[in-house]
Design brief:
The chain is α+β, with helices and mostly antiparallel strands and 521 residues long. 50% of the residues lie in helices and 14% in strands. It has 21 helices and eleven strands.
């Protein structure tokens, strides 16, 4: 499929062209010789740059239980120490109820809070983390890039069911690359490799490899029952199958028998998470109530969740969302203040508080919050609101920059930004929005076709027609005024006075709209 590369992917494309084309290499995990178009330096840079925005898109980091976080990181580093490729591995727990785990190139790995609740013992956690370590170590993510899937701008997340705390739809610019990398489906061979070598790392680290078999059996059962929305989490990028169960069983027989299960340790570590699980269940129900425009129900569920765990910022954020829907901005501001106080490193609390501050007339505070949210995750919502703030302050260039950043998104804010961009920029640069193309009729007369690609009507159009010299310089030969209004999406054809000897000469001519005004009549 032939697709044009989105403009925001050009920096990554250039990086891969300049630093990444390395030819053949030996895979550090499998030992196989393979084509490697993405260098290790590029892998590390991509993983590092995408790690924070990718975490932001899925609920942000889980912070309430530092002991649990340290425990998960310890298991991950225990496996990383015996892996076949030394990378700067990092492990985080995400504040997302969906059972999921993922790896970015360069060893940046995440496991969701929701998945930890579904595991039975430390060896099963080791099976999950070992599997993700192999995806990074064996370059499976880099191979996805090399196949051109991400670079063509194909949103692989399209096949993934929408999750309550997945904000990937909001991201704009280069941050959106991370959503593609995380949600890309691995090949069958890549999944089997990750199972095989992940189990090998488990044995090297002292774990019982049979835990990986039991884990896959659980996954297959849950996928058949479609319980807990599992298909929208781990199974979207790591589909389970009986083939994988049998392969894992064969691998476990070949590997050393026995090993550590660590069930008691694991259950002790997740005990606090289990205690507050009803709060997260209420939070998930509250999000559904918001989508159904039931603010009173969402508010009650937020209060229930806060009562169970008052330190969880997400619960206070839900409280604020419900109050906004009830048009109680002062109370919503207090809720968002509490959410930011508890977690100032999650973009959405700052974004929502900034929007409310703008509504309440605190424009300085709004700009501060919205700017901080963009540092964490660039979104169309924040860019559009900052564009509005800049325009209100008389800073036209800043407004243009923010509208441009937001205009590529298909969301309501993206569409509003695109419309605002046209209104602000079209009078000064009409050629960017009003397309011209040239053709020749049967008599050889040169025709100019105009197309209004915007969502606004324009009038008082002036079109220049020029001829290119041998050096490529265009000399204006005529200028035409269009008498009628050009509606959104409308095309018209102007007949010039010039005749060409043959149609091939049309490439020596160029048309350009040099004047237009927006016509709201």
């Amino acid at each position: 499929m032939n697709r044009r590369l989105p403009h925001w992917l050009w920096p990554l494309w250039v990086l891969l062209i300049v630093a990444g084309i390395t030819g053949c290499a030996t895979n550090p995990v499998t030992g196989k010789s393979e084509l490697a178009l993405v260098s290790e330096a590029s892998e590390l840079q991509i993983g590092q740059s995408q790690y924070q925005p990718s975490r932001q898109m899925q609920g942000g980091d889980y912070k309430l239980d530092p002991s649990l976080i340290k425990y998960v990181q310890g298991v991950g580093q225990r496996l990383a120490a015996v892996s076949d490729r030394k990378l700067p591995y990092e492990f985080v727990v995400l504040n997302d109820s969906t059972p999921n785990a993922w790896a970015l190139p360069g060893g940046k790995i995440a496991v969701n809070r929701g998945l930890l609740l579904e595991l039975d013992n430390e060896a099963e956690l080791a099976a999950v983390l070992g599997h993700e370590i192999v995806h990074a170590a064996a370059r499976h993510g880099a191979q996805g890039i090399e196949r051109g899937i991400v670079l063509q701008g194909v949103l692989l997340a399209a096949g993934v069911a929408t999750r309550d705390s997945d904000y990937s739809q909001l991201a704009v610019g280069a941050a959106a690359v991370g959503a593609n990398l995380i949600n890309q489906g691995y090949s069958r061979d890549a999944e089997l490799e990750a199972d095989l070598f992940g189990m090998t790392y488990m044995v090297r680290a002292g774990y019982d490899p049979m835990a990986a078999v039991g884990l896959q059996e659980t996954f297959v059962r849950l996928s058949k029952d479609r319980k807990e929305n599992w298909l929208s989490g781990l199974f979207a990028s790591h589909p389970p199958s009986m083939e994988r169960v049998e392969k894992n069983r064969e691998t476990a027989r070949r590997l050393a028998k026995g090993g550590d299960l660590g069930r008691e340790r694991y259950q002790k570590q997740i005990a606090a998470l289990k205690r507050v699980a009803p709060g997260y269940a209420a939070y998930t129900e509250g999000l559904a109530a918001l989508r159904d425009k039931k603010p009173d129900q969402a508010l009650a569920l937020a209060k229930k969740a806060i009562k169970i765990e008052p330190r969880e910022a997400l619960f206070h954020g839900l409280n604020g969302d419900a109050l906004v829907l009830k048009r109680n901005n002062p109370a919503a501001l207090s809720a968002y203040d509490r959410a930011v106080q508890l977690d100032s490193d999650f973009f959405r609390h700052l974004l929502k508080r900034g929007a409310v501050k703008a509504e309440l007339g605190d424009h300085v505070g709004a700009r501060q919050d919205l700017s901080k949210s963009i540092e964490l995750l660039p979104t169309a919502d924040a860019h559009y609101l900052l564009g509005q703030e800049a325009l209100r302050a008389g800073d036209r260039q800043q407004a243009l920059a923010h509208y441009q950043a937001a205009s590529g998104a298909s969301s309501g804010s993206g569409q509003a930004a695109a419309a605002a961009l046209v209104r602000l920029d079209l009078p000064a640069h009409p050629h960017k929005y009003l397309n011209t193309s040239l053709a020749v009729d049967s008599s050889g007369r040169l025709l100019i076709q105009l197309e209004n690609r915007t969502t606004v009507a324009v009038s008082n159009l002036h079109v220049q027609l020029g001829e290119r010299s041998a050096s490529g310089r265009v000399s204006v030969r005529a200028e035409y005024k269009v008498p009628e209004k050009l509606e959104p999406g409308q095309r018209i054809v102007l007949r010039s006075e010039f005749r060409l000897a043959n149609a091939g000469l049309v490439s020596r001519w160029a048309g350009r709209v040099v004047r237009a005004v927006i016509d709201d009549r």
